[in-house]
Write a structure and sequence with these properties.
Its EC number is 1.13.11.11. With 276 residues, the protein is mainly alpha-helical. The protein has one domain: Up-down Bundle (Methane Monooxygenase Hydroxylase, Chain G, domain 1). It is built from 12 helices and no strands. It has helices at residues 21-24, 27-31, 43-72, 76-100, 105-112, 124-133, 148-157, 163-175, 194-205, 211-242, 254-260, 267-271. α4 (76-100) runs parallel beside α10 (211-242), α6 (124-133) runs parallel beside α7 and α10 (211-242) packs antiparallel against α11 (254-260). The chain is globular and about 65 Å long. The model has no long low-confidence stretch (mean pLDDT 97). Bound molecules: protoporphyrin IX containing FE (HEM) and N'-Formylkynurenine (NFK). N'-Formylkynurenine (NFK) binds next to loops. The site of protoporphyrin IX containing FE (HEM) has 24 residues, from α3, α10 and α11.
Length: 276
């Protein structure tokens, strides 16, 4: 495109008084926030990988919260669209591990000590996502006590119904039934309930009769499937990079992360499949 001058083409070029791309996207704070603590080349990758993950998690939270509201109002198509978007976000996060995996243990050790006791274990957005979905463990909030604002955000989330609780309301309404209160505990991980499992089985045995609930169930399973892949990619990357060392956050590291692979967000949706 030799000789091309955007001005001849009508491109606006003076932004002294108008909002520009840089202004709108707040690129100064965002692109000025990569503060390496070492001179290790790979630390830049490490920081950006985490910052981009946190940005995608921000969007995931935004969508999950809106999906929860829409579902509470019986707006199934809008809910499905947002849940599909969250699954796509996880697809993005899952692919991103391929970039981080280019870092070897030799390269990571060059700056690991500089990380101190900081760890993804302290990602409040990750914990909020778990809380919104229904995996609620108050013990995970303790690391945020030094930040009353973040602690309050997590506490506030525990006072609301989880996305799964709202899905169970929709399920109960659709089938004209009610579930025992154990299904609705606000501040504990959701435990599989027999009545809920029976209800989902009713839906799967006659999908045509309960199409919206059937679609909702599959969206939730899809979401959990992607979420599980994220956990698996994380633990595999961690093992590849630090082996069985303890985590900077103080946990057993890979052993802890393997244990987390067993978490079930929507247990009845997985358990009932073997009985169909
Ligand atoms: C070199 C790469 C990485 C290593 C070696 C690593 C290591 C670890 C370890 C050992 C833990 C357990 C907690 C601890 O004691 O520190 C952990 C937790 C965690 N990490 Fe990473 N991690 C890496 C990359 C990432 C990335 C890219 C993210 C994306 C945000 C992330 C997010 C998390 C989260 C959310 C937890 C808490 C998981 C839970 O409680 O279930 N990590 N990580
Ligand atoms: N827990 C990691 C350190 C780590 O990965 C980390 C450190 C600071 C900020 C984010 C991190 N990512 C995930 O845990 C480790 O034990 O090496």
């Amino acid at each position: 495109m030799s000789g091309y001058d955007p001005e001849d083409d009508g491109a606006k070029e003076s932004f002294a008084r108008d909002m520009s791309y840089v202004d709108y996207l707040a690129l100064d704070p965002i692109l000025g926030a990569q503060h390496r603590l070492s001179d290790a080349h790979d630390e830049m990758l490490f920081i950006i990988q985490h910052q981009t993950s946190e940005l995608w998690m921000r969007l995931a939270l935004f969508e999950l919260d809106a999906a929860r509201t829409a579902l509470g109002q019986g707006q199934f198509p809008a809910t499905f669209k947002m849940l599909t978007r969250v699954a796509r976000i996880y697809d993005q996060l899952n692919s991103a591990w391929d970039v981080l995996r280019t870092m070897t243990p030799s390269e990571y050790t060059r700056f690991r000590d500089d990380l101190g006791a900081s760890s993804g274990f302290q990602s409040y957005q990750y914990r909020l996502i778990e809380f919104v979905l229904g995996n609620r463990n108050r013990a995970m909030m303790k690391v945020h006590e030094h930040r009353p604002d973040l602690h309050a955000m997590l506490t506030q989330e525990l006072s609301r119904k989880s996305l799964y609780h709202v899905a169970l309301d929709a399920l109960a309404d659709g089938l004209g039934t009610r579930f025992a209160p154990e299904a609705y505990r606000l501040d504990a991980p959701h435990q599989a309930q027999e009545d809920v499992m029976q209800a989902w089985m009713q839906v799967y045995r006659d999908p045509e009769a309960h199409w919206s609930l059937y679609e909702l169930a599959e969206k939730l399973v899809d979401l959990e499937d992607y979420f599980r892949r994220w956990r698996f990619n994380h633990v595999t990357t961690v093992e590849r990079i630090i082996g069985l060392k303890r985590g900077t956050g103080g946990t057993s590291g890979v052993a802890y992360l393997r244990r987390m692979l067993e978490v079930e967000l929507f247990p009845e949706l997985w358990h009932m499949r073997g009985s169909l």
